[in-house]
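Translate structure to sequence.
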């Protein structure tokens, strides 16, 4: 089975716009969204795990992107929540750029490595400068989902040619 971003990132799993102004606020906002969508019943412990991971390893990968991932006993299938901030959030990235795209990946305990595939897919999406700028010009989570879906369909067509 081919994994696609649009299988996990769709309008309901996109948090736009992020209201957070700090990394900790982002984590709370993304985890609260997981609770709202009923993926989680609580986020206190998971917040601490994610915060500790982010303190040990910079979650900002550069180019305005940050990733957080962890396993959870409450998760049965990999969950992706994408937060988008037009202004960007200071993640103390090595390149000095604020993070506009923050991807939270929660995985079941028995599949702790799927996040790598989704991070690679997301990096492929974002490295297209026109896609990145388009994502920052949107006005809704639905528009973001449409851009991701259209990009995937365009890539599938390119592979068929």
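Result:
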């Amino acid at each position: 089975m081919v994994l696609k971003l649009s299988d996990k990132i769709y309008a309901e799993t996109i948090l736009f716009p992020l209201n957070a102004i700090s990394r900790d606020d982002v984590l709370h906002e993304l985890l609260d969204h997981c609770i709202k969508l009923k993926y989680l019943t609580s986020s206190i412990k998971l917040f601490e795990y994610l915060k500790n991971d982010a303190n040990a390893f910079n979650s900002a990968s550069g180019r305005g992107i940050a990733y957080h991932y962890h396993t959870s006993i409450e998760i049965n299938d990999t969950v992706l929540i994408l937060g988008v901030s037009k202004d960007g959030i200071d993640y103390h990235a090595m390149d000095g750029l604020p993070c506009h795209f923050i991807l939270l990946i929660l995985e079941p305990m028995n599949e702790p490595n799927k996040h790598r595939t989704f991070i690679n897919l997301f990096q492929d999406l974002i490295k297209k400068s026109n896609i990145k700028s388009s994502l920052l010009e949107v006005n809704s989570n639905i528009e973001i989902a449409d851009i991701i879906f259209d990009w995937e369909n365009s890539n599938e067509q390119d592979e068929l040619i």
